[in-house]
Amino acid sequence: MTSETKIYGLIGYPVKHSVSPQIHNAAFKTIGINAVYLTFEVKKEFLRKALDGVKALGIKGLNVTIPHKVNVIKYLNKLTYEANLIGAVNTILNEDGKLIGFNTDYTGVLKTFETYKIDLTNKKIVLLGAGGAAKAIAFAIAEKASSLIILNRTKRKAVNLVKELNKKLKVNALGNSLTFKALKNSLKDADILINATSVGMEPNVNQTLVAKELLQKDMVVFDIIYNPLETKLLKEAREIGAKCINGIEMLVQQAAEAFKIWFKIEPPINEMRKAALKSLTGEES
Question: What integer pLDDT is reported at residue 24 of this predicted model?
Answer without folding.
Answer: 98
